[in-house]
Amino acid sequence: MKMKTLALAILLLIFTACFSQATIVWNPSGTYPDEAYWDVGGNWNTGQVPGEDNKAIIRASVICVLNSGADVDQLSVGDGGDDGASLRIVDGGSLFADGTAWSAVGYNRDSTVTIESGGLLETTHRVLLGRESDSHLIVDGGTAVIGGHLQVGNNGGFGRLTVGDGGLVDIAGDVRRNGDMLIDVRGGTIIIDGDKTGFISSWEGSEIVAYGGAGILLFDYNATHPGKTTIQAMEQEVLEGDITEEGRVNIEDLKLFVDDWLIDDCDSPAHLDGPCLINFRDFSVLANSWLRGFAPYWHVVETVYPTDDVIVTPYAAQDFGIVADGVTDVTDEIQTALILIDNMGGGTLFLPAGNYRVEGTLTVPPRVTLRGDWKQPKPGSEVAGTILQAYAGRGDENADPFIRLIGSAGIKNLSIWYPEQEPDNIQPYPPTLHIEGSTVENLTFVNSYFGATTFREGMTRLPFMRNVYGTPLKTGIEFDRLSDIGRIETVHFSPDYWADSGLANAPAGGEHEDWIYNNGTGVIVRAIAWSYSAYVTVERYNIGFALRPTRYDRGSPNGQSYKFNLVDCQTGIYIEESANAGYQFTRFNIQGAETGVYISSAVEEANMFHTCSIDASGDAIS
């Protein structure tokens, strides 16, 4: 008898747990002209405001307005009743649906949920948008955080999502199109976990549009937000003079204009201003918009300084409002241009000679090269050409790198300068460059604290750096976590480059030299998988060339280096650790060192030296 009673009690507990969620339905009983408030108990059918154990249902009636905090188990808008249910979350309103079931915008009746600036909707599970209905989620400056998939258009429905005015939609799962769908990005941002660029490309222009189809969609994986896909939009101005309606005023528009020259025809596409006669008034309109727009126009650019190749680019910097006055922050403008070029399949963003103030950080996507106009620096000569002024991360060497290069991205013909670095009070900064399997050529680290690194928790492969100069203060180049061969060619680091740069706040009396001599390392190699380096000169650093263990888990350097000149460094070569296969040093010239080569007592592997010379005041090999 006791066992039966116990079993009955357990069944009762299970039944109670399964059916404990009570449903409360929006049902204002008073007289309201247009809207009523969520937090008034009398507006719900039970006389109580829904709580964390309740399913809240919004049915057609007056608009439900939320201007305070609310926590429910499940939300279902447009669930039964008539079409037209509406929930508006305004400034100060936050709604959490933190149960394990779905929430819905338009479960089976047409409905709308609007999240205004300062409003928040957050779910811990998937959201159904437009299930068996034509329904709309409008994120108008507010935030929607979806803890699972966004399922759109289930059971023959139509789901619409509009994100504008700085609104944010953050989706932990996928966007699953199960019926008709329209996503319109109008000045807001959508973030989705993982790489979703494939489906965005296939939906672009039909299911996903920018500014109702009149703008330009921008999307990237891992660039704006690491590990996530980001969708944004750029508004495209209507250009007078764009006769072909291709998005840019160019030679094709001029051809059509010439065809109708001096024709009296008000219906002519070349009729742009004033009387119907096509004349200089119309030409003036076309000329004022010449080469403006965002349709790509591939062209060869002219440079001030000689290059070893021809630079071809689809856009000009001014197309994006990128100005080189050294005062205007152009971080967002450069990043927008890089993403747009990636979206069109890749290419080069060329920044003409000048100073570009970049207060934030940049990410160069795969297939894109960020390039400038570069004069190879020499000690005694000023830095000239395209100069990026970096500011982010001062005081925090673990902050995000100034420029992150993803995969096959490239950077070429640039100088990078930190105007706020102090020669007599060296401040830490994060790495200037974080590179993967990327290419870096013709670069000047004017006064970077940490020049470039490949370090990451995962593996990367095949980085290539060539013609790198400057005065990196703490570390010049670090190669680590490589699964395949990296290359370093033609590097020269010296305290003189910053001192002779001619830039503001450059050292006037060598006050930075002691700090570099006691703290700086030219090149560090760690886990590098048979990488090689050659033609490297490091002058007056604490350590010219260092072999160290990986910063991640396990791994040591194995590879070969050729023709290094390590001049007046405290220690020429510092070997803390090397791999079983050892390391090969060929044609090294170590001059004026205190210690020529230091080898840790823990090192047991072979380190081979061929045709090397060592001049040291202390031990040649210690």
Proportion of residues in extended strands: 35-45%
Please state the overall shape, judged from the principal axes of the Cα atoms: globular
Question: Which runs of at least 5 residues are low in confidence (pLDDT < 50)?
Answer: 5-19
The mean pLDDT is 91
Briefly note the structural class of the backbone. mainly beta
The largest sheet is: 15 strands, parallel
Distance between the termini: 86 Å
Please work out how many helical segments DSSP would assign: 7
Helical coverage, percent range: 10-25%
Rg from C-alpha positions?
Answer: 31 Å
Number of strands: 51
Q: What would you say about this model in short?
A:
With 622 residues, the chain is mainly β. The chain is built from seven helices and 51 strands.
Describe the protein.
The chain is mainly beta. Residues 5-19 have low confidence and may be disordered.
How is the secondary structure organized here?
Elements: H1 2-18, E1 22-25, E2 35-37, E3 54-58, E4 63-66, E5 69-72, E6 74-77, E7 85-89, E8 94-97, E9 103-105, E10 111-116, E11 120-123, E12 127-129, E13 134-140, E14 143-146, E15 150-152, E16 158-164, E17 168-171, E18 175-177, E19 180-186, E20 189-193, H2 197-203, E21 208-210, E22 216-221, E23 228-234, H3 251-259, H4 280-288, E24 299-300, E25 312-313, E26 325-329, H5 331-343, E27 347-351, E28 354-358, E29 362-364, E30 368-372, E31 386-390, E32 403-405, E33 410-417, E34 433-434, E35 439-445, E36 450-453, E37 460-461, E38 464-470, E39 475-479, E40 482-484, E41 487-493, H6 496-499, H7 513-519, E42 521-525, E43 531-539, E44 543-547, E45 559-567, E46 571-575, E47 583-586, E48 589-593, E49 595-599, E50 607-610, E51 613-616
Parallel strand pairs: 1-3, 2-4, 3-6, 4-7, 5-8, 6-9, 7-10, 8-11, 9-12, 10-13, 11-14, 12-15, 13-16, 14-17, 15-18, 16-19, 17-20, 19-21, 26-28, 27-30, 28-31, 29-32, 30-33, 31-33, 32-34, 33-35, 34-36, 35-38, 36-39, 37-40, 38-41, 39-42, 41-43, 42-44, 43-45, 44-46, 45-47, 45-48, 46-49, 47-50, ...
Antiparallel strand pairs: 20-23, 22-23, 24-25
